[in-house]
Amino acid sequence: MRRRHFPAATATPGGASVAPSSGQPAPVFLDYTQEQLDRAYDQSFWAPQMAELEADDGARSAEVRRKMPPRTERYGASDVDLIDIFTPPNPHGVPVLVFIHGGAWTRNSRQDASFPAPAVVGRGAAYLAPDFGSLKTTRLPEMIENCRRALEWTIRNAASFGGDAGRVFLAGHSSGAHLAGCVLTTDWTARGLPADAIKGALLMSGMYDLYPVRLSSRSKFLHITPQEEEAASPMRHLNRIACPIAVASADEDSPEFKRQSAVFADALQGMGRLASRTLAFNANHFEENGRLGQPDSEISRALFSLMGI
């Protein structure tokens, strides 16, 4: 196993967290000291082979693009607003999956997210992956809006690539699951679409409340205001979610990514929106994502069940 552990702070009888008597610094969030919270949001600490695993996804994606080149369309006015479309032969009214890639809002692109296409297309569905910018050039609110526009374009133009506008689904991993969660809180009626424009979503090891994220070392590149934090925290807008959600996590993920997934899934279950809860065994954060490219994995089975394919 590749888990890492650090000592936890204790709790007083009244429930308040206190640091151990050894002189350890006081907690800044739950039982985490600042160092522990920083590590809990640093995936390279929990998956030392992170770079190799992401490179493997990129290599598999390049091979997929060579064997089954996608159709690439522009969903907006910017040069960034591109979306890749993979479909079965001669598609007509097929279900559609839009996948939002991860990478701490700073890494990867749609071209690194082609690897799940064969598994999804092999089940008779269309697979789409958009670009939406990164924090290196784009602020988080704009990235969220780009993802919303990519979904809106997909729904309005589904027939042009043989998709069914009434069966559009969403998936995302890590920061992509966060962005997908924000997309799920969209008021689609204000954009002239049905309230249930998205029929379901698979969210894998995402962040659904940005408060602890902003307290962590990720604040060095996640520059948002408290108001933007509130707007971009799906956990605080559960009433806006109008479709079933499948939540997945990895058993060797960091403690915060596991906690965020569990809390979000519990809330969805309480409101009748949880479609399924999946744990990827013997998998870290990045191995979980890779399993979306395996048609018989527990992650893919959760997705196919959600989509009814």
Question: What report would you give on this structure?
Answer:
This protein is α/β, with parallel strands linked by helices. The chain has a single domain (34-307), classed as Alpha/Beta hydrolase fold, catalytic domain (Rossmann fold), CATH 3.40.50.1820. It contains 11 helices and 10 strands. The protein has helices at residues 34-40, 43-46, 50-67, 117-121, 140-157, 175-184, 211-215, 226-231, 255-270, 285-290, 298-307; strands spanning 10-11, 17-18, 71-74, 82-86, 94-100, 126-130, 163-173, 201-204, 245-250, 274-280. The chain is globular and about 65 Å long.
Order of H and E elements:
EEHHHEEEHEHEHEHHEHEHH
Radius of gyration: 19 Å
Topology, number of strands: 10
Helix coverage percent of residues? Answer: 25-40%
Query: In CATH, what is the homologous superfamily?
Result: Alpha/Beta hydrolase fold, catalytic domain
Tell me the overall shape.
globular
Q: Give the spatial strand order of the biggest sheet.
A: 3-4-6-5-7-8-9-10
Average pLDDT confidence is 93
In terms of per-residue confidence, which ranges show pLDDT below 50 for 5 or more consecutive residues? 1-21
Structural class: alpha/beta
CATH architect. name = 3-Layer(aba) Sandwich
The multimeric state of the shown protein is single chain
The span between the termini is 33 Å
CATH topology: Rossmann fold
Number of domains: 1
The helix tally amounts to: 11
